[in-house]
Write a structure and sequence with these properties.
Helix content is 42%, strand content 12%. It is built from 12 helices and 12 strands.
Length: 361
C-alpha cells in the first residue's frame, strides 16, 4: 500500500524529468567533448548575431581552409574612407585640448647647455645644487656658504652659489677672450661627456682620466713629446715653426676648471705652486682654500656638475667669440714671446698662439 501511494505521488515528476542524468554515468569522454563544442558554437553564433545587429558592418566570414577573412574590394575602399575621415578629424581638432608644458629632458644639459645669463635659483634648485653632506663631515671653512641644516644634512645657499658661478663665468670668459689655455678636469664616473663638451665650447683641453702627478712641476719630462702647433688670431695653423717649437718648454694651462677637487688635490697643489688659477666645485666636505675661485655646490650630483660645466663652457665660447671679433678689427690680444714675425704670402702675421695638437690635457 505504501509503495503504491509513493508511485502515484511521484510518478508524474519522474516521468517529466529527462533521462540524461541517468545516462551520464554510461557516457564516454568523447561525448562530453562534443557537447562542450556544441555549446561553444551556439554561444559564438549568438554573439555574432548580436554584433551584426548592433553594427552596420557585418562580421567577415572566416574560411575553414585558409583561416583568413574574405575581404572584398568594397570593404577595402571602406577602410580607406575611414582612414581619410580620421585624418580629416585630426586636422580639424588638433588645436583643441591641453598642450604639454616644457618638461625636464636629461640630454638637454649636454646638447644645449644654458648660458651664464640663464642662471637662476630655480635652475640650481632643480639640479640639486643645494644638497651638501652630513653635518659630521663638514669643513668649518664652508660655514659662510651654508644656509642651514635639514635632516642632518647641510643646505648650501643658492644665492651664494649663483654669485660665485657668475664670477667664475667672467673669469673663464676673460681668459678665453685673451687667448688663454683652459683645462677642464673631471675624473669621476660619467663626467667625461660634460668635460669634453665644455672643452669643445671653450676651445680648451680636457682631462677625464687620472691626473699624472708632476705634469706641471715636471712637465718637460712627462709631456716633452706632446706635439704643439702655432695658430694665428683666427685659430688657423701657421706652418714653418717646427724648429722653434722643439726648443720651447711645455705649455702650462692659464686656467684649470676642476669638477671634483677631492680626487685631484695633487693637481690643485701643483697649480698653486706655479701660480695657475683654478676654479672648482666645493662641497661642504671640501676645503675651499684649495682653489682660487670656489663654486659652492653639490659635487656628487651629476646633473649639478653637468650644469656648471655647461655654463662655464658657454662662458668660454662667448670669450672666444669676442676674441675673434676683435681680431677681425685688427686687435690681437696676445703676442707670444720668443718668436719672430714672419711673412706669409706677402702679408705680415700680426700675432700667434701656441696650442697643443690634441684636445686632451
Amino acid at each position: 500500500m505504501i509503495i503504491r501511494q509513493a508511485v502515484l505521488r511521484h510518478g508524474r515528476r519522474i516521468v517529466s524529468k529527462p533521462t540524461r542524468p541517468f545516462l551520464r554515468p554510461f557516457a564516454s569522454e568523447i561525448d562530453a567533448i562534443e557537447a562542450s563544442l556544441n555549446r561553444s558554437l551556439k554561444e559564438t553564433h549568438s554573439i555574432e548575431t548580436l554584433v551584426e545587429n548592433k553594427t552596420t558592418d557585418p562580421v567577415p566570414q572566416i574560411s575553414n581552409t585558409t583561416h583568413r577573412t574574405s575581404t572584398s574590394q568594397a570593404s577595402k575602399q571602406q577602410v580607406a574612407d575611414t582612414y581619410h575621415a580620421l585624418q580629416r578629424q585630426k586636422e580639424l581638432t588638433h588645436h583643441l585640448g591641453t598642450s604639454i608644458t616644457p618638461h625636464y629632458q636629461p640630454h638637454a644639459i649636454l646638447t644645449n647647455p644654458p648660458y651664464p645669463a640663464d642662471i637662476t635659483l630655480p635652475l640650481l634648485l632643480a639640479s640639486q645644487s643645494h644638497l651638501g653632506h652630513s653635518t659630521s663631515l663638514w669643513n668649518p671653512a664652508n660655514s659662510r656658504y651654508i644656509f642651514g641644516i635639514r635632516s642632518g644634512i647641510h643646505i648650501i645657499s643658492l644665492d651664494i652659489t649663483a654669485a660665485h658661478l657668475r664670477r667664475a663665468c667672467r673669469i673663464v670668459s676673460g681668459v678665453a677672450e685673451r687667448g688663454g689655455l683652459i683645462l677642464f678636469v673631471g675624473t669621476r664616473p660619467h663626467q667625461d661627456r660634460c668635460v669634453v663638451n665644455a672643452a669643445k665650447l671653450a676651445g680648451g683641453c680636457h682631462l677625464f682620466e687620472r691626473w699624472t702627478p708632476g705634469s706641471i712641476t715636471n712637465g718637460h719630462q712627462l709631456l716633452g713629446r706632446c706635439k704643439m702647433r702655432v695658430v694665428d688670431e683666427f685659430d688657423r695653423l701657421i706652418p714653418g715653426y717646427e724648429n722653434e717649437l722643439l726648443e720651447r718648454p711645455v705649455l702650462k694651462p692659464d686656467l684649470v676648471v676642476c669638477l671634483n677637487p677631492l680626487e685631484n688635490h695633487v693637481m690643485l697643489h701643483e697649480c698653486g705652486l706655479h701660480g695657475v688659477p683654478t676654479v672648482g666645485i666645493i662641497d661642504t666636505d671640501a676645503n675651499p682654500t684649495w682653489v682660487t675661485y670656489p663654486i659652492p655646490a653639490n659635487d656628487d650630483s651629476l646633473r649639478c656638475v653637468q650644469l656648471i660645466a655647461g655654463v662655464l663652457g658657454r662662458a668660454g665660447e662667448e670669450g672666444q667669440r669676442k676674441r675673434r671679433e676683435r681680431a677681425m678689427q685688427g686687435d690681437v690680444s696676445y703676442q707670444p714671446e720668443g718668436f719672430e714675425v714672419k711673412k706669409a704670402e706677402g702679408e705680415f702675421q700680426a700675432g700667434g698662439a701656441i696650442h697643443h695638437a690634441g684636445g686632451s690635457g
